[in-house]
Design a protein that fits this description.
The complex is a heterodimer of chains A (684) and B (453). Chain A is an all-alpha fold and 684 residues long. Helix content of chain A is 41%, strand content 2%. Chain A is flat, with a radius of gyration of 34 Å.
Chain lengths: 684, 453
């Protein structure tokens, strides 16, 4: 029989008559309809659960783990929050702390976190598709679900949806929020936070209303072209202007400049003695005046030495007009009323020496190749238009150009921006974190005619910023107010004569008082309860350091005795914490025996000398402030309350809570109050 | 009509067992009582009617099972889709079966209609059955349209919105009709609930009643329609038609009971079930993101059986493409059995439309010119293509039979006008639907389906 005939015979056997056809099709139907249930048995999540059972079989606590394991689909279901999270179907060991050595996913237990799994579910922090039970749909962006799992480096943004306070466990988020304020993003972009307040920028872009008396057109040109070439730590971004544009803007800025209050004053100079002496004296004066608490200068090795509160001075000699500098040092507010720099009350010799030092900080190469043509009216007009178009006045005050309104997109809900509104660059991953990070890195890559300038940020800084911005979600904005952990404070301005002094001295540039101010120096909100009057008066007269390791210190202000008295009295009266009356501690209990016991506790039981210095020769504890002379500095009640619970007096302090019983606290207090700076009599 | 059985109506009242017997008789009414063996061949009907019924049965079965898991509320509907996909055992299979069976049913209904037309099975006495069939076509499309909204994803929401907006372009009553359909001014929770009730209760009941009538009429009209080699219809012996009137011609082939036909139809239904299962295993029913009224996808396409209409909408204003043309089409469909002018069964050359060639040429040329001018004016090149093809065939068929004429041309020249109208309609439907589904991208611009830019 030929092959064809054989085939026909076989075929006839199976489908020759109608009943056989029926049989064949029915068998086929049965087989095909069995495929789907079989695939269910082989589903991905069952596979992972089987792997888990194998994994725990050989572990020491296998029986317990097996007992706790629930097969089948597991879900966290919170109907009120519309949460259906089935992650624990594959990630079965999320709450098994004993598997902490297991690194392989999906069996890794969840790291310790402040919230329980069932409180909010998984997706609120990690994103992704909670209802899915396959890897593809749960983790990645698919047609049915746009939002993939949030990469771990951006995870802290989820905490930021509810928490506005500074949390210990969210360094990236904290840094990102600081950067948002520091790099002036909030000058152009409105960012409303969950508690309803706007992000307030903390950088201080100087006013340009009198810029012509401060610096030259050439310097402005070079600065606009590349701010970081002048000062590596400058936060001003690069607008990528062409040479012509930068020259036009410089011409305009010089043309619009008006005379400042300072320029109308007479300045009596003292000519410094020529030669190296002046420079040497100026350098050491710069050091003793602690200018580097706020200003940084690059040293010979290229490292920045100093603080970042104020402009970098590495090349300031190439920038400023010497006459302007002298007037500035005498009265900063006469040039810029809003500046953070205090009026230091330098005498003329100090001003002269400082000026000669600062003017020596030059870089002749910086302006060597800058040759600008004479400005003409067209150039000035073009410059004015550029200043308006690019929103310079969002940060700087300029005569004749008003601050722009609604200049840049509102970023209050950027964390929930739907992807269909985003124009991605071809080839980049199409997720929201990548968009935000990409935009910060290179803003103008996303389209022609964009105006956002490029900031000089490291990769870590970019990711931190993206983390902070990703926290600005719809959920954050619609959070019930009682759930928002806010740190908003009412604006605080000290009043009266002491208030005027504090404004003049700009205390709040460095100190926080009642929630307002800079974080470089201690919080003074309760200082009146903490310190003794005499010490305070001495300190204001001659600030010395409590932490010898620090470079940045409080400068000496040359205050008059009346000024010191006014400030001190004000602080001692107004800056009191509650519960610090004389009833808080029985000072009669602080006798010599108690002090002896306290000394034992200090050195032996609690080893406080590991962080605090009492005896400058022996102790090497540099973590906390020195306690030599603390008996003259702090009030006994403060010492006692501090020892009982440091965190209530200074939230977030590094000092651990020693959990002292009352008696031990009293003994330690007794010991400490006897530590005088100038001991008279019995030190013990 | 005399009945061979002797049980009188009302006998059930006296003896319940007789009710069962009577019920069997009524069931038999649904099926042709006798079939001729030659009519059982696949080539006769391709079992398209049976396959369509099979799809409907699958829809009912899977639909009932799906109803166990579905809540027609927002956003629970979409969450239920997720549950079906991820949690319910073989839930994805249920959903895929339901979806592909729906598409298959629409396709098969069109095929069935075309087959019935081309085999002339709408001729008397089957006019009523044809009318019922057109109603069934409309019911199928409406079932599909209402079901499309239920997953509440982007596809559903915008497809429904496009459809509802077409309705609103009806003059005078359009806006109100849209409001009644949606239960509101936009597609929202009311629309979802309304469509759910329509899809699970009202239209299925209507469909079941119409199917019943359709099958009963099939029985009453003499079963399946077939013609012998001379073009004369075959009527089985003992069929009601044969008994009622003088038979046109009795075929002396072996006649079988209806069970034989039913058996083969069951095989067909099982086969289509197998095919649908395989389709469901290979390609899952799509689910896009949750419906977002703020984000219109580009392009927002109607379900594939309406994309032909959407393609027409690209060229003509909504009133024309969405109302006038569909009304003309549906009206034309209803009118087909009653079109004595368009075809004639009484004489040999009766099917020629206008016996004289010059008049045929003139009419053909005029019609085609008018249509082509209209289409060229609106730049509807894809709609022009079938018109040109039909024009060529028409011109081919206007030659009268000559010694050199080939069989095809003779056959073409004997086609009635209804043939040309239906062929043009079907070809346009196929081309426009294909273009609208595959060749249209964002902003309804032309794209090649394989993605070449």
């Amino acid at each position: 029989m030929s092959l064809g005939n054989q085939f026909r015979t076989v075929a006839r056997f199976f489908v020759g008559t109608a009943p056989r056809r029926f049989a064949a099709v029915s068998v086929l139907l049965a087989l095909v309809s069995a495929i789907a249930p079989t695939k269910d048995l082989l589903s991905q999540w069952r596979h992972y659960q089987r792997l888990y059972v194998q994994l725990i079989r050989n572990r020491p606590d296998a029986a317990r783990l097996k007992h706790r394991f629930k097969g089948g689909i597991n879900q966290i279901w919170i109907p009120e929050q519309h949460v259906v999270d089935r992650c624990s179907t594959c990630h079965v060991a999320l709450q098994e702390a004993s598997l902490s050595d297991v690194r392989k996913q999906p069996f890794r237990p969840h790291p310790p976190m402040p919230h329980s799994l069932t409180e909010f579910g998984c997706v609120v922090c990690h994103h992704g598709q909670g209802a899915a039970t396959t890897v593809e749909e749960a983790h990645y962006s698919t047609k049915a679900w746009e939002q993939p799992i949030l990469p771990a480096r951006y995870l802290e943004s989820s905490c930021g949806q509810c928490h506005m306070d500074v949390l210990e466990g969210t360094p990236r988020l904290n840094q990102g929020r600081r950067l948002l304020a520091r790099y002036g993003c909030a000058h152009c972009h409105a960012i409303t936070q969950p508690d309803g307040t706007l992000v307030v920028p903390v950088d201080e872009p100087p006013s340009l209303e009198h810029v012509a008396e401060k610096t030259t057109r050439e310097w402005i040109f070079a600065w606009i072209k590349n701010p970081q070439a002048y000062a590596a730590s400058a936060t001003m971004p690069n607008y990528r202007f062409s040479d012509q544009e930068a020259a036009d803007i410089a011409s305009f800025l010089v043309a619009q400049s008006t005379p400042s209050e300072n320029s109308r004053k007479q300045l009596k100079n003292v000519a410094p003695s020529p030669g190296d002496d002046a420079l040497q004296a100026g350098t050491s004066l710069y050091g003793t005046l602690f200018c580097s608490s706020c200003h940084a200068i690059q040293n010979a090795a290229g490292n920045l030495v100093g603080g970042d509160l104020a402009p970098e001075l590495t090349r300031v000699g190439s920038k400023v007009n010497p006459d302007w500098l002298r007037r500035w040092l005498q009265t900063p507010q006469g040039y810029d009323p809003k500046t953070r720099m205090p009026r230091y009350r330098y005498d003329k010799k100090q001003i002269a020496l400082l000026s000669s030092f600062l003017l020596s900080k030059k870089d002749d190469d910086f302006l060597a190749n800058v040759h600008l043509p004479e400005p003409d009216q067209q150039s000035i007009a073009r410059g004015k238009k550029l200043v308006g178009d690019y929103g310079c006045t969002a940060c700087h005050r300029v005569n004749g150009v008003n601050p722009p309104e609604s200049f840049a997109p509102d970023l209050s809900r950027i964390g929930s921006k739907p992807l269909f509104q985003v124009g991605f660059i071809r080839g980049m991953p199409e997720t929201l974190p990548d968009y935000i990070a990409g935009k910060i890195r290179d803003p103008r890559a996303f389209g022609p005619a964009l105006k956002m300038p490029t900031f000089s940020l490291t990769d870590v800084q970019v990711e931190s910023l993206a983390t902070a911005l990703l926290a600005q979600t719809d959920r954050a904005v619609t959070m019930p107010p009682e759930l928002v952990r806010s740190t908003a404070h009412a604006k605080y301005h000290p009043g009266g004569e002491p208030g005027r002094l504090m404004e003049d001295l700009r205390c709040q540039s460095c100190h926080i008082i009642n929630g307002n101010g800079g974080d470089m120096a201690p919080d003074l909100t309760s200082e009146g309860s903490a310190v003794q009057r005499k010490w305070l008066l001495d300190f204001m007269n001659n600030p010395n350091t409590l932490r010898p390791m620090l470079i940045r210190r409080m400068p000496k202000f040359n205050l008059s005795d009346a000024e010191i008295k006014s400030l001190s009295d004000y602080m001692l009266t107004a800056y009191q914490a509650s519960g610090f009356d004389s009833l808080a501690l029985e000072t009669s209990a602080l006798n010599a025996d108690a002090a002896a016991r306290g000394k034992q506790l200090f050195y032996t039981k609690y080893a406080c000398q590991s962080c605090h210095i009492v005896d400058g020769k022996k102790d090497k504890g540099y973590v906390g402030p020195t306690l030599a002379g603390v008996g003259d500095r702090l009030t006994p009640v403060w010492i006692y309350k501090w020892l009982k619970n440091p965190n209530t007096l200074s939230p977030g302090t590094l000092m651990p809570n020693p959990n002292l019983p009352d008696g031990e606290a009293r003994d330690l207090t007794a010991f400490l109050v006897r530590l005088r700076a100038h001991p008279k009599g019995d030190k013990k | 009509m005399a009945r061979p059985m002797g049980i009188q109506p009302g006998a059930a009242l006296h003896n319940p067992l007789h009710a069962i017997v009577r019920w069997r008789e009524d069931f038999q009414r649904m099926m042709s009582s006798r079939v001729i063996e030659s009519q059982l061949g696949f080539r006769v009907t391709w079992y398209l009617g049976a396959l369509t019924l099979g799809c409907f049965a699958i829809q009912v079965a899977t639909g009932l099972l799906l109803m166990l898991y579905y809540h027609p509320s927002i956003p629970q509907a979409y969450a239920d889709m997720k549950d079906l996909e991820f949690v319910v055992s073989s839930g994805y299979m249920l959903r895929s079966l339901h979806r592909w069976s729906a598409h298959a049913m629409v396709f098969l209904v069109f095929m069935h209609m075309a087959k019935v037309f081309y085999r002339k099975a709408y001729k008397p006495p089957r006019e009523l059955n044809w009318i019922v069939g057109v109603f069934l076509l409309l019911t199928t499309l409406l079932l599909s349209y209402t079901g499309y909204l239920l997953p509440w994803d982007q596809l559903s929401y915008w497809g429904t919105t496009v459809g509802a907006n077409i309705i609103s372009s009806i003059p005078v009553v359009g806006a109100n009709l849209r409001f009644y359909l949606l239960g509101g001014h936009t597609v929202n929770a009311n629309a979802l609930l309304r469509f759910y009730v329509l899809h699970t209760i009202m239209f299925p009941l209507l469909a079941i009643v119409l199917i019943g009538v359709h099958l009963w009429r099939l029985h009453e009209d003499g079963g399946m329609y077939d013609v012998d080699k001379n073009g004369n219809p075959i009527v089985p012996e003992h069929s009601p038609l044969a008994l009622a009137e003088a038979p046109i011609r009795l075929e002396e082939e072996k006649t079988l009971s209806y069970r034989e036909l039913l058996f083969r139809e069951v095989i067909g239904i099982e086969a289509i079930t197998v095919v649908l299962f395989v389709l469901g295993l290979l390609w899952r029913a799509p689910l896009e993101e949750l419906a977002n009224p703020l984000h219109t996808p580009n392009p927002a396409k109607a379900p594939w059986y309406f994309t032909g209409l959407q393609e027409l909408l690209h060229y003509f204003p909504p009133f024309v493409a969405g109302i006038i043309l569909p009304v003309l089409i549906v009206g034309g469909l209803f009118f087909i059995p009653f079109s004595p002018f368009f075809d004639n069964v009484t004489t040999a050359h009766a099917n020629q439309w206008f016996r004289r060639k010059p008049i045929r040429m003139v009419i053909a040329t005029a019609l085609i010119l008018a249509l082509s001018v209209l289409l060229v004016r609106v730049h509807a090149w894809d709609a022009l293509l079938p018109a040109l093809v039909v024009a060529i065939l028409l011109l081919l068929g206007t030659e009268s039979a000559s010694p050199l004429a080939r069989g095809f041309r003779t056959w073409l020249s004997s086609r009635p006008l209804s043939f040309w109208v239906m062929t043009l309609f079907l070809m346009e439907a196929i081309v426009l639907t294909a273009v609208g589904t595959l060749f249209r991208g964002p902003s309804w611009a032309w794209v090649w389906p394989w993605g070449a830019q």
